[in-house]
Specification:
Helix content: 40-55%
Shape: globular
Structural class: alpha/beta
CATH architecture of the largest domain: Alpha-Beta Barrel
Number of helices: 15
Order of helices and strands: EHEHEHEHHEHEHEHEHHHHHHH
Bound molecules: flavin mononucleotide
Number of strands: 8
Number of domains: 2
Largest sheet: 8 strands, parallel, barrel
CATH superfamily of the largest domain: Aldolase class I
Distance between the termini: 26 Å
Strand order of the largest sheet: 1-2-3-4-5-6-7-8
Strand content: 5-15%
Length: 323
């Protein structure tokens, strides 16, 4: 019997994987089954960023999209969950992995991993009261991977929709490599098989991981997709000719560019936003460094469009074509 195709979830990457990006990749390269959107922050006044709420609305998304919340406060989480529910969304995710000290020092993101007692109270409360199924995305710890040991029995006792693990600790940020030794130790301790996330950049990386972890069927990919948007479809067996790859990439880029320009005041921050996109997209080309430099030099939208025209005359990287 043929094995079930893997489920691929687009990871949240703040500043990049908003609905404009998610829709652009869904319409062109495809291969992604669902997405988790970058986090929304909460405050005690209950004010929320309207643009971010609209970004996850089902009407604005071609992919099933889960909204993510960055908070340590159950009431504030539930307030967002209620709004998501009214918007017709299906799931709400708690960020338990954000590594940045500004966030973690305030007990949010990976900061939640250092205080199991408070985190247990938070998770118990939100899973009991949330109008939507709750999922979590976490690291192995903030300062040490031993922090997860105390959290697993708590997690096993809760009614969570899913658990996604990025096997780094917060202090690493995105440096070094994923810690598969500790991931191997923790994996069998979970009653529900977690989703895996981290450092899958090629089809080969993916195949290695599926061999190592045959029980895992849900895979979350972030930077690997941003650097090669064909990757999810290549994992699922699609092979691209140079021309086909270039055409898809050109269409995807045009949709992202036009999407940003059509936003209210879209022109004001356009060059910065596109620079962030190209810090990843430039890896699709053989001369990555030259391409990103060209984008960074653009000082106007016209200048930017000229740079892009030049870029699409350059060679697609062989490693992108191969996946
Ligand atoms: C610039 C940047 C922004 C990110 N924003 C978020 C976010 O909003 N929420 C979240 O849970 N993770 C966020 N992440 C983490 C990614 O979702 C993912 O866990 C991480 O990049 C590892 O997966 P990868 O190796 O497939 O990229 C971010 C990562 C980066 C590099």
């Amino acid at each position: 019997m043929p094995s079930k195709p893997p489920t691929i979830i687009l990871a949240p990457i703040r500043g990049v994987t908003n609905s404009i990006y998610r829709n652009a990749i869904a319409k062109t390269f495809g291969g992604i089954d669902s997405a988790v959107a970058p986090y929304i922050t909460t405050n005690s006044q209950g004010t929320l960023n309207i643009r971010q709420l609209a970004d996850v609305h089902p009407d604005a998304n071609l992919l099933p999209t889960t909204g993510q919340v960055l908070t340590k406060n159950a009431q504030e989480f539930l307030h967002v969950a209620q709004i998501y529910c009214e918007q017709g969304m299906q799931e709400v995710n708690l960020n338990m992995g954000c590594p940045y000290p500004m966030v973690a020092n305030r007990g949010k993101g990976s900061g939640l991993l250092t205080s199991p007692k408070e985190t247990k109270a938070l998770l118990t409360d939100i899973t009991k009261k949330s109008p939507l199924p709750v999922s979590i995305k976490l690291r192995l710890g903030r300062h040490s991977s031993s922090e997860l040991e105390l959290l697993i029995p708590i997690i096993n006792n809760l009614n969570l929709h899913s658990i996604t693990i990025h096997p780094r600790i917060g202090d690493q940020l995105y440096k070094g490599s994923v810690d598969l030794k500790n991931f191997n130790y923790y994996l069998p301790l979970f009653e529900k098989v977690p989703y895996y996330n981290g450092d899958i950049f090629t089809v080969n990386d993916f195949q290695k991981m599926t061999k190592l972890y045959p029980t895992i069927i849900q895979w979350m990919l972030g930077r690997g997709v941003l650097c090669n948007p064909a990757l999810p479809s290549q994992i699922k067996g699609k092979i691209y000719s140079v021309q086909e790859y270039k055409t898809h990439l050109q269409q995807m880029h045009s949709q992202i560019r036009d999407g940003f320009l059509n936003l209210e005041n879209g022109k004001s921050d356009f060059l910065n936003k596109m620079r962030e996109q190209w810090s990843y997209l430039s890896y699709c080309f053989e001369s990555q460094h030259k391409i990103f430099k060209k984008i960074k030099k653009a000082r106007s939208i016209d200048h930017y469009n000229d740079a892009v025209q030049w870029i699409f005359e350059q060679e697609i990287a062989q490693k992108s074509l191969n996946g």
